[in-house]
Amino acid sequence: MDKVLEVKNLSKVYGKGCADCFGLTGPQADTNICPSCGSVVAAHDVSFDLYKGEILGIMGESGSGKSTSVKCLFFDEEPTSGSAVFYDDGKQYNLFTLNAAQQRQLSSRRFGMVYQNPYLGLNFDISAGGNIAERLLMSSISHFGAIRERASSLLQRAEVPTARIDALPKTFSGGMQQRVQIAKALSTYPPLLFLDEVTTGLDLSVQAAILDLIMEIQQEIETAMIVVTHDLGVIRLLAGRTLVMKYGRVIESGLTDQVLEDPQHAYTQRLVASAL
Amino acid sequence: MSQYNFGFLDEFAKKEIRRCTIKAVAIPGYQVPYSSREMPMGRGFGTGGLQLTLSLIGENDTLKVIDQGSDDSVNAINLRDFIEMTCPGINTTTSTDKADIIQSRHRIPEKELKEEQLIVLQVPYPDPLVIVEPSEEKRKQMHGEGDYSRLLVKLYEDLIKYKEITISHRYPTRINDGYVIDPSPIPRWDVPKMHQSKALILLGAGREKKIYAVPPYTDAKPLAFDDVPFRVEDFCDKRGKRRACSKCGSVSSFLDEFVDSTNGKTVYQCSDSDYCAEYCAAQSKQPFEESIDG
């Protein structure tokens, strides 16, 4: 199997940080706020590998550091320490040592991101097609007809009526906005896609349709995905492997079936029990 | 005015502007910040261009000042008077041919400029990205990374809404395949004149404190799509016939449109008054040309 991403010891601390930060926080300390300096340890020592076409789930309660980890990988946040290597077309990119322009190139061409809140992923002042065009234009496609065609086929793929291509996203329903976000993220056929709580806040039938769409895409273009969610159902349906996070630490990881059927950590046991 | 230094600005100020100008020429299209001095007129009245002109002009240089193509509008006359007053020994002209330095507001002369000439454009808004990004810090980063996708999205949105690009002036233009500039509010008509121009083009924004340049023989490409090329204004009437200047009859100049107050009719006239006068003069020598231009 081809490795797509290798993350090692990723940490993110908000605040000035001190020598005791990592020792005094975490699940055993039952907090992620350092008692000696008051910094927030959002993520610490997060390591995992991701392979081509694989979906990795990251599960945990609010504030457990799932989104922070993903935001670091998508360059929305700068990690405090750790490394991440992205393997693409026989090349290796050490993500956190790249300069801003190289990072932007990667995130606009080779990565895709779908946020929980469509306001983060879409520009609401421009049309749905324009949003997709923006990402295509970032990757130096400058043929108007080609952009139109690609945007239209992507929207169709994401099951957004193509007649709405020139409508503003603010006139769309929540589920449709999410579909436009997915179409935008997929526009450059990225080998790596981040999905941050994509179905949270949508009604059940729309959730199911979006999850279907994600699975179809995964099968079609073999995109590797990291799915961040606190919804066990989403994890069960999508993810082959799962990390469980609490207070910024990975407390359990393994095959999704294994983690859900035979949880080892007390927190995971409680989580699974409460959901079922 | 003898108590003032030649060119109104003190020598240190001129030196600073010249240094910034050299930097601007060395990095085509890059907006070089400078400490725009107080001038005895409000910012926004061409102080950026004026400071460039004052720091570059010397005795025996010949200056032409135009405003929207005209040598006789208030802005042009006042700036010219001021420069004449503070720079004893310079000559002024209305002829594009005879000028060494041309300071202009919103037009580039119709007649192709020569290598030994220099044109200074007055700029209200130096940054083309200001229409898509309000934060200057982010705009600088976008320029640094060559990230102009959001400007292109603006063109895309225009095309889907209006079936054409609706930017009439300040058309974003890529210099030397690098930085995209706001070429000051010149009409689209003038944008191709910047491409591989023989004359140095300097742009000065007094209020925004920026100087930038299009060096001679440098590429200046207006942003466009591969299949939707940039186009200039066409001055055709409803039947597709190119309108002519009502004064000189030229069919190859940028036309101003106005309504004749005596009879309410729409009149078209050359915006470049020197070009128009020269064309008139040439025709009186060759009276047959008029019938050819029809």
Keywords:
heterodimer; A: alpha/beta; Rossmann fold; four-stranded antiparallel sheet; 10 helices; 10 strands; about 35% helix; B: about 290 residues; alpha/beta; 2 domains; 8 helices
Summarize the structure.
With 276 residues, chain A is an alpha/beta fold. Chain A has helices at 66-73, 100-109, 118-121, 128-138, 144-157, 174-186, 204-221, 232-238, 256-261, 266-275, and strands at 3-14, 40-51, 55-60, 81-88, 91-94, 111-114, 192-196, 224-229, 241-246, 249-255. In chain A, strand 7, helix 7 (204-221) and strand 8 (224-229) form a beta-alpha-beta unit.
Characterization of the model:
The complex is a heterodimer of chains A (276) and B (294). Chain A has 276 residues and is an alpha/beta fold. Chain A has a single domain, classed as P-loop containing nucleotide triphosphate hydrolases (Rossmann fold). Chain A is 37% helix and 25% strand. Chain A has ten helices and ten strands. A six-stranded mixed beta sheet of chain A has the order 6-7-8-3-9-10, with helices on both faces. In chain A, strands 2-1-4-5 form a four-stranded antiparallel beta sheet, covered by helices on one side. In chain A, strand 4 and strand 5 form a beta hairpin. Chain B has two domains: 186 residues, Rossmann fold (3-Layer(aba) Sandwich); 61 residues, no CATH class. With 294 residues, chain B is of the alpha/beta class. In chain B, the strands form three sheets. Chain B has a seven-stranded mixed beta sheet with strand order 1-9-8-5-4-2-3. In chain B, strands 7-6-10 form a three-stranded antiparallel beta sheet. A two-stranded antiparallel sheet of chain B has the order 11-12. Chain B is globular, with a radius of gyration of 20 Å. The C terminus of chain B is likely disordered. Chains A and B meet through helix 2, helix 4 and helix 5 of A and helix 5 of B.
